[in-house]
Every structure is written in structure tokens, then in C-alpha cells.
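Q: Joint fold for the lines below.
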Amino acid sequence: MTEFSKSTYNKVIRGSKRALYDKALVYEILDSHFLCHVPYVHENAAIVIPTAYGRKGDRLLIHGSMKNRMMLSLLEQEKVSLSVAHLDGLVLARSVFHHSVNYRSVVVFGSPVLIEDPAEKMEALEIITENIIAGRWAEAREPNEKELNSTLVIGIDITEASAKVRDEGAVDEAFDHDLDVWAGVLEIEAHPGRAVKNEDCKAGLETPASVLNFRFQNKGVKR
Amino acid sequence: MTEFSKSTYNKVIRGSKRALYDKALVYEILDSHFLCHVPYVHENAAIVIPTAYGRKGDRLLIHGSMKNRMMLSLLEQEKVSLSVAHLDGLVLARSVFHHSVNYRSVVVFGSPVLIEDPAEKMEALEIITENIIAGRWAEAREPNEKELNSTLVIGIDITEASAKVRDEGAVDEAFDHDLDVWAGVLEIEAHPGRAVKNEDCKAGLETPASVLNFRFQNKGVKR
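A: Joint structure:
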């Protein structure tokens, strides 16, 4: 499969000319971020919570506490979804109406799977950690048995997905082109800032490679 | 009211020591961002979509196309919610288990209100635009009647809300303090990048004040 098939869930209706179902693109966008938003329903209200994720093939991996309401609710659903969005710029048109943003976003649908096997759980936590900051897993102490037992790991086996990408300048009405209004894109970038060492850190430890090499939202995706 | 009362919706259970119900803090976090995530339910699946917002008193304002599935579904609900989250840093502990992120986040619950009065709609669009980039409304052409008629504006009258903030270094187990592992926070910052003028822009137009003065995620909130 190189394209996700379209269903009532993932078919993009609004702004459909920006919709893309190419699997490689969807995965490229997913792999260039590490925070997703996961919606769930609690007592008739839809709620959304941000959380970290990683990807192994067609499975997304998330984790949380054993008592996490969002995580537990996912396990009761047949189909769950999550959303990932990069904000790349503000699109400033001559008219207020055609203001927009440049972005790369994905909505994924899938089947939730409880991951219980200790080796699989450990692998999932490594994938999530490495997706946040590559190289960190090998630097830090691995989870012990007690920590592993207190962590809930859920896989989401992707069944449907769609991407939406806007990556262009302002698009105004022809009759507005002569207005004395600047139009263009103000790019937005996320960067690592200072690395602030813990005060209780052992003396003499240098900033690790994972921190020195960290690049946000830029793992192979064009900016 | 200076604090939101706690209900089954907004009461934070997991990590409750980081939970805050102070109204001023909730509004400060809301006012320092402009993208929220709005969850809704479509054919038994919870879905979440990012969108822009603004705030007027106890009402949040969002807008979209007249046929936007997410927007229309909100109007059918008694209680809707949305989430706003700033990622401020990666918290790197000595143990993988105590890795975390520093963040400022808010979950808001409220009653959806369709805003139909043209003057109220115009005001809402100005508030949303100005919340994204201050000063832009006065620079650009205002929406005309046709544009206003094709825009759906929804208010969300806030009934409950909670904030969660993590703003500290790594917190490890005492028995890990002697490990030869660097611990600390890698700060994450969002900045405006280049201002890329449209090629079809009228000659001689200078970069406007709204662009020159733009500061992302930094409108009065400590970083």
C-alpha cells in the first residue's frame, strides 16, 4: 500500500486540494514530530490531551500511567485517532479573509492494542524516547521492572490516515492585488534553546551528544 | 470568580500536583498562544483538528467554513472542549522513566454559541486575527459582506477549565543521583523566521509593523 484509502473518517472535505493520502508523506510528517493530540470521550464530552509518540512500521506507540483516563478510554474504543501538526508560518494576505497558516498536519485512525509483553514494552519506550531525542536511550538508565510495570503502553495500528499541507505564499482575490498591503509569509521556526544542567547533577558531566545533536521538527523533512 | 470549580471534566487526576485552576493563569496561557486543538465525534470516532482562536472575556472564539464538519458538530453538543499546549523544554533525567517535558497547557470546557450578528462576527474575526498577529487587522482589507456570510463563527462560553504547568529540572530517584548521566532541561523555543514577501506583491511595500513586532508564544507569559 502506498496510499491510504479514503473513508468517512479520513477523507478531507474542506480544503481538499491540500489533502494528501500518500503513505510516505504521512509517515514523513509523523516522523518529524513527537507530540500528538489524542481525543477521547468522557461522559459525553470530547476531550483532547497532548502526548508523546513514536512509530514502528504501521503502528504508533504512546505511553502513560496505568491510571491515565485518556489511555484507558482508548482501550475501550474500536477506532481511535490522533492528530499531529507542524506550524510552519503565518500567511498574511492583502485581505483578512485570505489569511491562513502554512502547516504540515496528519490525522491518523487506527485500532488500539494493549502492549503487555515486557520486551515489547521496553522496545516501545525506546522508540518513543528516541523519537523525542535521538541518542538519549543509550545515555540514560533503562526502566527497571517496577517502572515498566507501572507504565501503560498502547499501540495504534494505523488503518486510515490523511495529511494536509499548505506551503505557499498568500493567495488573494485578483481585485485585491493592487492594494497597498504587504502580503507574504512570516515563517515560524522551533529551535532548541539553552541546555540547563540540573543543579544536583554530578560534577564534571559534559552536555551529552543527544542534546548537542537535537534538531526540532527537522528530521528529514524539508523546511 | 478567580478559580474554576472542579468537575468530572476539568479535575486533573494524573499529575494533580501540577494542576492549577486559577482563572488569571488559565487566561494568561490562552492569551499567549493562538492555535488550539478541538476534539469532536464523527460516527463513533473521536477526531481532533487544530484551529486558530481568540478570547473575549469568558468566551473563546473560533471560525471556519460554513461546511466545516468539526465546526458544525460543535453546535450539536451541549459541552465542548479544547486544548492549548506550549512545549517549553525537554526534561532529560538520569533515568528514562523520569524523562518528561516542560509545558504550559490548558483544557477548557464550555457551551458553544453560534455567532450570527454581522457586527459581532466582524468583532470576533478581528479578535482572532489580532490574537494571531497583533496589528494585522488594521493593515489588511476587512472582510466584505460575502466573505462574512461564508464564515462560520462560534463562541465557546467557558464553564470549566484547568491548567497544567511543568517548569522545573529533572526529578530523579535518590538512588540515581550518582549515575554518570547528565540531567537537565533542553529548552525549546518558537521564533519568527524570515518574512517572505509574495512575488505578486505591489512594488515598494515595506515589511509591515505587525511582522516586525511579532513574537511567538511570548505575549506576557514568562519563558
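Q: Anything notable?
A: The beta strands of chain B are 19-20, 35-42, 45-52, 54-56, 59-65, 80-92, 100-115, 151-166, 184-197. Chain B has one domain: 16-212.
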